[in-house]
Amino acid sequence: MVSVVEVLCLLLVAALWGATNPFLRKGTEGIEHVRRGDKISQFLAEVKFLFLNVKYLVPFLLNQSGSVVFYLTLATTDLSLAVPTVNSLSLVFTMFTGKLLGEEFGGKSAVLGMVLITAGVTLCVLSSVSESDSAGVHTTPSI
Predict the structure, then answer these.
(1) For residues 113-133, b (16+ Cβ closer than 10 Å) or e, as one string?
(2) Where are the domains of the chain?
(3) Exposed / middle / buried, residue 45 (Cβ in 10 Å: 0-12, 13-18, 19+)
(4) What is the pTM assigned to this prediction?
């Protein structure tokens, strides 16, 4: 059975994962200018660049908090509902947030894709809720 709280948690995870993606892209701007001699120094310089960059660090921490909420939600939510719901809706949040930040996102075909994703997720959630409701109706009373 899917509760309203579980659905809201899944929406929160999708929003945290999806909405932070465009901000993470913006936060990594300039990393291509970091140059060091060997591979280990290059790696450490890039890590330093990212973790001292507030424009990257704040969205990264919000994204990771979505992972914590997802992990906690999986304890009570059906995996076959949670994973497709969160992954597909995070794409919608990514496209919507990117558009708000001025990124191009694909025009009419992208809008159609978002509508189809939202409709599919809605059907999955409604199906899960109706299955749990009908399971309660068909139980036999104990004597």
Answers:
(1) bbeebeeebeebbeebbeeee
(2) 4-136
(3) middle
(4) 0.76
